[in-house]
C-alpha cells in the first residue's frame, strides 16, 4: 500500500511540498483552514485596488486537479497525536499518516501594544486585504459625504512597519489616491496623508544602506510622510499615540510590523525556540520525530552558521520542495539530507517605476530597472497561468491608464465578521 503523507498548510511551504509529492508513489492529503493558496507578496496590491483577490489566489483542489494521488481536506488542525500518527481536525475523521509535513505559517504579531489588536488592521490574509481595500475606500466616501471627517482623520492613513510590506503599501496608497482624485469631484483628495512609521532609523531592514536610502527618498518624493525612530505606544478609537507623546487622529492604522508563528505551533506540543518557532534539525525534522518535517515560517530552521532563516516565501517554497523530496528518500529507505537555502536575493517595490532589488551575484537594481525585475520575478513566481495573464493585463492597464480598477467596497464595514468587531457597528477601525 502506498505511504500516506499529510501536509498541514497550503501556503508556499505546503504547496511546494505537495508538488514534489505528486510525482511520488505516495497518497498525499493537504489540509488547510482555507480552501485556497494565497500569493502573500501581492496582498498589498489587492488592498490598494490594483489586483482582484482571484488574481493572487488559487483553489487548492484546482492546483492538484490532475494529480489523482493528491487530495485536500478543508479543515482546521486542532492537534496532532504523534504516537498514533493522527492529525486531529475540526471537520471529518482524523487524518492518518506515515509521514507528516507541517507548514502552518505565521500570523500578525501585535507586540502586546495596548489597543493595537483591537483597532489596527492586519495584512496577512486575502480577507485582510479586501477588508483594508473596503475600509480605505469607505474613508473617502465618508469624507465626501461630510468633509469635517477629514479633520477627524478620515483621510490620514498610518502604516506601522517599514519593511517591504509597509514600504510597498505606502507607495501603492499614493498611487490609489491619485486615481481617487479623479473619482471624487467635490473632495480635496490632496488632503489625504500617508504616514509610514518605523521604530528603527531605517526602512527595509536587511537591505543595503543605498537601497534603504533610495526607498526613503522615493517615498518622500511621492508625498509619503516617513517617521523613522518612532514607535506606537497605544491605539484607541480614532487615535494613535506614539511613544514620543505625539497623538495622530486617524481612522486607519495598518499593522505591517511583524509576524509570529501560527497557533498551530503551540497545538503541536513540539519544542519551540526563538520567536516561538518549532525547533528542527538541519534536515528540518524536529528532534525525536523522524517521520515529521516542519517547514516555512513555523520552523526555527538555521543555516550552517546557526543563523535562523528569514520568514520568506522563497525559504518556505524551497523547504517545501526539500521536504517533499526527503519523504521520497525515506520511502525508498534512504536517510534525508540537510536543507540548504539558495539565496536569490530580496526585492521591494516602492510604486510605479521604482523598486529596489538586491539579487544573487551582488546584482543591485534600483529605480526603473529594479521595478522591471520586480514585475518579472513576481509574474514568474505567481501560481497559475490564468493568474499570470490576468495580473499582466491588470498591470499593463494600470500602467498605461494610471488606473486601479478594483475600487470595490465588497465588504461593507458593518458586515465585517472575520475578527471581533471593535464597535457597535461592527467596525474594526478607529472610528
Ligand atoms: C503582506 C505580506 C507580504 C509578503 N511579501 C513577501 C515578499 O515579497 N517576499 C517573500 O519572500 N516573502 C514575503 N512574505 C512572507 C511570505 O509570504 C511567508 O514567508 C510565506 O507565506 C511562508 O510560507 P508558509 O508556507 O510557511 O506559510 P503560509 O504561506 O502563511 O501558509 C500557511 C498555511 O497554513 C494554514 N494554516 C495555519 N494554521 C492552520 C491550522 N491550524 N489548520 C489548517 N491550516 C492552517 C494557513 O491557512 C495557510 O494557508 C510576505 C508576507 C506577507 C503577509
Structure description:
This protein is of the alpha/beta class. The protein folds into two domains: 3-33 and 75-108 and 260-331, 3-Layer(bba) Sandwich (FAD/NAD(P)-binding domain), CATH 3.50.50.60; 116-257 and 344-417, FAD/NAD(P)-binding domain. The chain is 32% helix and 23% strand. The protein is globular. The chain starts with a strand and ends in a 30-residue tail after the last helix. The model is unreliable at 414-431 (pLDDT under 50).
The CATH architecture of the largest domain can be given as 3-Layer(bba) Sandwich
User: What ligands does this structure carry?
Assistant: flavin-adenine dinucleotide
Radius of gyration: 22 Å
Count of discrete alpha- or pi-helical segments spanning 4 or more residues? 12
CATH class label of the largest domain: Alpha Beta
**Low-confidence spans:** 414-431
How much helical structure, as a percent, in the residues? 25-40%
Query: Could you report the average pLDDT, rounded to the nearest whole number?
Result: 93
Structural class: alpha/beta
